[in-house]
Known about the structure:
By secondary structure, the protein is mainly beta.
Amino acid sequence: MNASPSSPRLTGGCQCGAIRFSCESVGHASICHCRMCQKAFGNVFAPLAAANGLVWTKREPKRFASSNTVKRGFCDSCGTPLTYEWQGDNQPVFLAICAFDDPSGIVPALQVGEEGRLPWTNDLAKLPGLSPEGTEKSVAFLAKVVSYQHPDHDDPDWKPRS
Length: 162
């Protein structure tokens, strides 16, 4: 996904809004199944894309050295995983795809870390789907939910819940 000179920069950030970023474009979108990425994301894989022209527009993430070659950035307020950063010169910062405000156009083209792939992930698309609106109980519950999540766009007037 590339932004042209006339198109806006790609934006994103953490769940609570304490960290925000923008970049010109992304590349090398992939899904990593390795055990380190599973632990870092608390998930079955980590979807990541290289950020070109990355700028932290609020503050930078806190970083954890998960190995001698990689640091991982995250929000120390809400815990959102944000970056995968190779140590060394001229290495791009990889951003969590779903940390972008609109992740729909950032499509992974490669799977890596296959040695850590959980076997049941091959059949995820075969699982039945259930919409939260599907039951009366779910509808009643969802009517009471108030989101404290940062909106999926930059909003100078947005204030986090204190």
